[in-house]
Design a protein that fits this description.
With 407 residues, the protein is mostly beta strands. The protein has four helices and 17 strands.
Length: 407
């Protein structure tokens, strides 16, 4: 009986093995087909961030304001949506990339808040297969200054410094820009942002561009475009990365009569020389960092002695000390920044004259990747004068808070 049982098992096993062998032999061979190319909408992505602020804690002077920066400084300022950005972007093909960024919280003045406005709308066209050479066409950041290039999503101080930011309101204009960078350095630029080292992004090792010169969302007014050039390089020494940059631009800026006081004097054609040159040095925080920029130049500025807008010298910059540390999953960035500026702001009323000295002490805390909280104490001394306000020196201190969500 036992022998019959084992014989039956052996017979079943033999039949099964033969059937399996024949099945394998009879299976037709299937040739591998290449995957179909992605459709344009499969490369499309969405990201963004939002910032909500409150600036009135420990405030000592409600008349101290910052028109180019945060419109909620001072009297009647309250909770304020500083930015609400949704970014649409995608690599449509190997050499064509697009980027559109509207801001749904643009504030043209302290009593007009949260308007929708285009910040960026451009395409990148690669000249070579690696996209080391590319043209950027549309409205985008003018390649002038590290902090100007750095996204507000990554920057430590809550507003950009006056000295380097005064050339271009909102840092952007409409034009054509050429960028070149080797693939290895483009990867390094990306790493400096993704690693939390507060990089400026990829604006090439070399950049050259022509643009309207009237700042973002404004038309050209004199058919004479501005010209800008920038060279930068992030050197790596073991784990440390140091970046140095030189940049300059030149053009003729046209004042608009709607932005001039009745009675102020100005040149008949409203055209004013507008040119600058700047230097940048950055030691990325691993863990200690230093960031410094300074620029000099000429531009339109109100002169209260003559009640006129004249081409005058200007200068200004900043130095920032920062530190990157962590505890478990939490990231901390304590920082100190001092900045100063003396000169005009061409896009403000009467090319308003400024003299700024400001110290900021703060900390950014990231408990998770999608949320950041910044507390910053500001000690400010600002003189800003135009035809209707010819003696306006404001001093004060304030504690500023910002909550930011990243998605």
């Amino acid at each position: 009986m036992r022998q019959s049982f084992f014989f039956l098992l052996f017979l079943l096993f033999s039949i099964s093995s033969k059937a399996q062998h024949n099945s394998i032999l009879d299976t037709p061979k299937v040739s591998a087909k290449p995957l179909p190319a992605k459709k344009w909408y499969e490369t499309f992505a969405i990201r963004g961030y939002a910032q909500v602020r409150y600036n009135r804690l420990l405030e000592t002077n409600e008349n101290l304001t910052n028109e180019q920066g945060d419109k909620s400084w001072g009297k009647d300022g309250g909770f304020f949506i500083r930015r609400m950005r949704i970014i649409l972007f995608g690599q449509l093909s190997k050499q064509v990339y697009f980027y559109i960024q509207p801001d749904f919280a643009s504030s043209p003045s302290s009593d007009k808040l949260h308007f929708a406005q285009i910040r960026d709308a451009y395409m990148d066209i690669g000249v070579d297969k690696k996209n080391e050479f590319r043209f950027r066409v549309g409205q985008s950041k003018v390649p002038y200054g590290f902090e100007n290039m750095q996204s507000s999503q990554n920057r430590l101080p809550l507003d950009r410094n006056d000295g380097m930011n005064s050339p271009v309101a909102n840092e952007r204009d409409l034009g054509v820009f050429f960028y070149w960078a080797p693939s290895k350095i483009r990867e390094r630029f990306a790493y400096l942002v993704s690693s939390g080292l507060k990089g400026s992004g990829d604006y090439g090792v070399f950049g050259l561009g022509v643009y309207n010169g009237q700042t973002a969302n404004n038309p050209e007014l004199n058919n004479e475009p501005h010209v800008v050039a920038r060279v930068t390089y992030p050197f790596q020494f073991k784990k440390q990365i140091i970046e140095g940059s030189l940049q300059a631009y030149s053009g003729q800026y046209v004042l608009t009569k709607s932005n001039l006081s009745s009675g102020v004097k100005y040149v008949s054609n409203l055209n004013y020389l507008d040119q600058r040159v700047a230097a940048t040095a950055v030691l990325y925080p691993q863990p200690f960092g230093i960031q410094a920029e300074y620029n000099i130049g000429k531009g339109p500025e109100f002169n209260k002695v003559t009640d006129s807008i004249e081409v005058r010298n200007l200068s200004g910059g900043y130095i920032l000390l920062n530190f990157k540390t962590s505890y478990k999953e939490h990231l901390f960035y304590p920082f100190v920044r001092y900045h100063q500026y003396k000169g005009g702001k061409k896009h403000e009323k009467d090319a308003r004259s400024y003299e700024v000295n400001e110290l900021e002490i703060g900390m950014e805390w990231q408990p998770v990747k999608n949320f950041e909280l910044v507390a910053m104490y500001t000690i400010s001394k600002r003189r800003y004068e135009d035809f209707s306000k010819q003696d306006n020196l404001q001093k004060g201190n304030l504690l500023r808070l910002q909550a930011q969500v990243n998605f």
